Amino acid sequence: MLGAVPIIAGQWAAAPHAQARGPNRASGTAPATTTGTATATDLAARIQQIITRPTFAGSEWGMAIADPTTGESIYASRPDDLFVAASSMKIFIAGTAFDALGAGHRFRTAIRRTGPVVHGTLRGDLVLSAGGDLLLSGRMQPDGTLLLPDPDPTYPGGAPLPDPFREIRGLALRVHEAGIRRIEGRVVVDTSLFTEAREGIALGNAQITVSPMMVNDHVIHAAITPAPTIGALANVAAMPATAYLRFTSQVTTVDGTTRPRPLTVSADASEPDGTHTVTITGDIKLNDPTSYVQYYVPEPAHFAGIALAEQLRAVGVAIPDRTVDHSLRHVPGAPVTEHVSPPLADEVKVMLKASSNVHTVTFPYLVGAIAGRDPNTPKATYDQYRRALFRAAGIDPDPTGASEGYYTPDTYLRFLAYVRRQPYFASMRDAMPIMGRDGTLAGNQTDSPAAGHVYAKTGTGMMLSPGSTSTAVLHKALAGYIGLPDGRWLTFAQFMHQSASQDTAMALGDEAQEAMAEIATAVYETQGAR
Predict the structure, then answer these.
(1) What is the predicted pLDDT for the residue at 204?
(2) CA distance 367 to 509
(3) What pLDDT, on a 0 to 100 scale, did the predictor assign at position 35?
(4) What is the dihedral of CA 75, 77, 82, 88, to 10 degrees?
(5) 476 with 398: CB under 8 angstroms?
(6) Do residues 369 and 193 lie in contact, with contact meaning Cβ atoms separated by under 8 Å?
(7) Can you say whether the dihedral through the CA atoms of 37, 41, 46, 48 is positive or negative?
(8) Separation between Cα atoms, residue 147 and residue 152, nearest integer Å
(9) SS3 155
(10) Is beta strand 245-254 parallel, antiparallel or unpaired with respect to 276-285?
(11) pTM exceeding 0.90
């Protein structure tokens, strides 16, 4: 998955030129197996009507639907064939995190001091100790709700969160309340929890630094506003504003008669003090609204340290200039205060409901470092937990094709059935997108009787067809749970792929997701009547 070459920014893309694989390479109209009841026959007919629409000509589908309590197979078509999972595979990461850490696990971001406080002056360093909290971003609101905008701020086109330093500001206020008015030493960031590493997050082959210190999802947005006259440079501002970087504009305001150049980060100069000067290049049309470009901070700990220093100064704590050190290990000190995160049940929602790839690549490190107490090779230790969970679910711990992002519908059903029997089931279920209500399924089947009763993870991958510069292969996935009126829960997994032109692939992806949601509605209506 990390070597993906997606042609659009989306969820996890699959390997280039990926197609369904397996012993049965039949078309999307292949015969399916059902229970043989009248409701099952009705369901099969409705599914067939959906997947054979002219829109999906040439597509290939595979799916399985079952009752995890009785083991009854309700519908299956190519359940053992391999398909591209795309972002639906985040179910496996979330399940491993729930299994290893527990739904109630909380992450603690601590402030310590290395010296005494004498008449309000800290004679030593102030240490920000990273605890792996992924919600130091202002997403969690005072009323307990979570901001999950669409698109997510980490995705192209996503706007900044409104108050990304809220938690850091809260820590600064509590330092002030603890009686510290001046710091003689440095602001130090301790990342002992695990060793930082670089990981790909798809999105045009973007990479981030995975760190136990995450502020604002590792993102600073370049907010680009057109100038009042054609030919002039657009204004580029940092959101949030921070001394960590400054943007310079090479963005031209244009009339739009020709296709504008894309807005991109074209240069990133690291300064001696650890700050950055970043150049944004491209075109923006006169009178267009503000556009946003994501800049992923390469030194998350340094960014966090600067943010804390700025917030400390804002609340009245004096700090010498340029006194931030980052990514230090095992810095001792006496406790001052701490921020305690929401439970894991909320932390995973950004990965599942909003499909954040930034959070996705971080969770394996957190599981390995916290549950496995492995700061050096946490990703490998995470995989031991994931393999053990697969074994417990009756799944090959190293399923064929998984390293390239391929899974079978049956693999998903086995995994989901196992989770259904675990104490964290309700927490994981509720963290998934809810059809017609929230997350990446908010706009699907909003008026269906099944709206609010289907909890499932979406997946999208698009890449160029072999030898083509204009034809793409679309991959779609949807897997999760359907709650029936009689209280039963069903598990399901759907996959499809289809060739399309680059110009039509995005629209086709939306239609395919709606079709998958329609199938979920058909399951709800036919099986709920039993």
Answers:
(1) 80
(2) 32
(3) 61
(4) -40
(5) no
(6) yes
(7) positive
(8) 9
(9) coil
(10) parallel
(11) yes
Q: Are residues 200 and 272 in the same domain?
A: yes
C-alpha–C-alpha distance, residues 353 and 267, integer Å: 33
Amino acid residing at 447: D
Same domain, 338 and 410: no
Which residues of the chain are modeled with pLDDT < 70? 1-38, 322, 326-327, 530
Radius of gyration of the chain (CA): 25
Contact 322, 88 (CB under 8 A): no
Q: Which domain holds residue 464?
A: 33-86+406-527
Amino acid at 428: M
- Cα dihedral 432, 59, 510, 485 sign: negative
CATH of the domain at 459: 3.40.710.10
Crossing angle of the two packed helices 378-392 and 90-101, in degrees rounded to 10: 90
End-to-end alpha carbon distance in the chain: 41
The number of folded domains in the chain is 2
Buried b (16+ CB within 10 A) or exposed e, 301-330: bbbbbbbbbbbbeeeebebeeebbbbbbee
The answer to the question of residue 6 being in a domain is: no
| Pairwise CA distance, residues 59 & 364, whole Å | 34
Spacing of C-alpha 125 from chain mean position = 34
- Dist CA 107 CA 111 (whole Å): 13
CA distance 474 to 497: 5
CA–CA dist 432, 239 (Å, integer): 29
Position 510 in a domain: yes
Output phi, psi for 88, to 5 deg: -65, -20
Q: Are 454 and 480 in contact (CB under 8 A)?
A: yes
Look at residue 26 in the predicted model and tell me its pLDDT. Answer: 34
- Angle among Cα 278, 280, 284 to the nearest 5 degrees reads 160
Tell how far CA 160 is from the center of its chain. 15
DSSP element (H, E) containing 173: helix 166-177
> 3-state DSSP helix/strand/coil percent for the chain, to nearest 5?
30, 30, 45
Spatial separation of the C-alpha atoms in residues 462 and 87, rounded to whole Å: 12
Q: What ranges make up the beta strands (E) of 67-151?
A: 73-77, 83-84, 108-113, 117-118, 121-122, 126-129
Q: What pLDDT does residue 203 have?
A: 85
Q: Is the bond preceding residue 160 a cis peptide, omega within 30 degrees?
A: no
DSSP state, 370?
I
Where do we find the tokens 């017609």?
436
- Whether 154 and 280 map to the same domain: the answer is yes
Residue 174, exposed/middle/buried by CB under 10 A (0-12, 13-18, 19+)?
A: middle
Give yes or no: residues 125 and 262 share one domain. Answer: yes
Q: Which helix (H) or strand (E) holds 387?
A: helix 378-392
Q: Same structural domain for residues 313 and 455?
A: no
What is the arrangement of strands in the sheet containing 60-66, beginning at the earlier edge strand?
33-34, 73-77, 60-66, 489-501, 471-483, 454-464
Q: Residue 449: its pLDDT value, please?
A: 98
Burial of 452 (0-12, 13-18, 19+ CB in 10 A): middle
